[in-house]
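F.,

This is the one I mentioned.
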């Protein structure tokens, strides 16, 4: 019997860029090539949660079907990926019976893309992002986010759903079926009710992010703009999952942290996902929205004042 640590490794994949036409706040996003170049990036990056699709094959191998029902991935994004680059997922094999492990993704040349914890509930321990949030220092002064407060909640409950051919709007100008035609790891569980163990198609892990974000304007958080933002940290947690295609859900949002760095101002939002009755929580997402300071007109002058 060896106690040698072992690691699962997925194949190299080329994720697709599907947000080149994304709009928010009346302007193009960082995923637009020309906007990205203006901000000093070589091209519009692929959205971070796109890489989440690399992990279910590894985590299903570790924890089986339970991963889709009670699994959590808690990720800090490290480096951007542009279309054409190859990415690979890794997962440390946990000891038998363990419910947490380390996962990460790298480009073909070894450049880190993201670091994350993966776990199986209900007891997840401290996730990677819970640890990162606990270490945040209070921001000295916020400009873009100066009207936000920790504890602020969304303006109202948001009712959302994801049908197979439903265009997900300006933030996500594509449908689930279009995503499945490009997704790095497809499964019949995403589209075939007969193949799914739950008798209904399930929403892929990366598309849970879309379900939880496409209606976020309804929260009416008073973020100043226009300013270009990106996802810096993201956690998706199943409580009584999976989430189903064509099912209605209720979203409730709360700002749980505010922070800043040399280049960004950030607000962390916990979005709780309930069934259509609004009584039973089935999942939640923690997301760090980072606004680039230099993309906000007059930021330097306002800060100097």
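My design for it:
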């Amino acid at each position: 019997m060896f106690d040698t640590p072992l690691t699962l490794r997925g194949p190299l994949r080329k994720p697709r860029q599907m947000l080149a036409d994304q709009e928010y706040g009346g302007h193009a996003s960082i995923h637009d090539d020309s906007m990205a170049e203006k901000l000093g990036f070589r091209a519009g990056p692929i959205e971070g949660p796109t890489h989440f699709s690399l992990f279910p094959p590894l985590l299903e191998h570790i924890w089986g079907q339970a991963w889709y029902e009670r699994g959590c991935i808690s990720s800090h994004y490290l480096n951007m990926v542009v279309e054409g680059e190859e990415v690979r997922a890794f997962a440390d094999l946990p000891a038998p019976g363990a419910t947490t492990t380390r996962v990460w993704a790298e480009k073909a040349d070894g450049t880190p893309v993201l670091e994350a914890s993966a776990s199986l509930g209900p007891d997840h321990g401290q996730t990677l992002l819970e640890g990162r949030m606990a270490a945040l220092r209070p921001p000295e002064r916020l400009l873009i986010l100066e009207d936000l407060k920790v504890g602020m909640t969304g303006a109202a409950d948001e009712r959302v759903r994801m049908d197979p051919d439903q265009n997900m709007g300006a933030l996500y100008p594509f449908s689930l079926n279009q995503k499945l035609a490009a997704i790095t790891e497809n499964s019949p569980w995403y589209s075939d009710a007969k193949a799914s163990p739950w008798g209904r198609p399930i929403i892929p892990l990366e598309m849970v992010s879309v379900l939880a974000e496409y209606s976020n304007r309804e929260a009416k958080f008073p973020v100043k703009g226009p300013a270009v933002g990106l996802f810096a940290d993201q956690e998706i947690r199943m409580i009584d999952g999976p989430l189903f295609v064509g099912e209605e859900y209720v979203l409730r949002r709360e700002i749980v942290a505010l922070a800043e760095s040399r280049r960004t101002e950030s607000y962390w939002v916990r979005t709780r996902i309930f069934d259509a009755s609004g009584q039973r929580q089935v999942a939640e997402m923690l997301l760090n929205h980072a606004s680039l300071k230099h993309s906000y007109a007059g930021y330097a002058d306002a800060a100097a004042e």
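Confidence is low (pLDDT under 50) at residues 27-33.

Talk soon.
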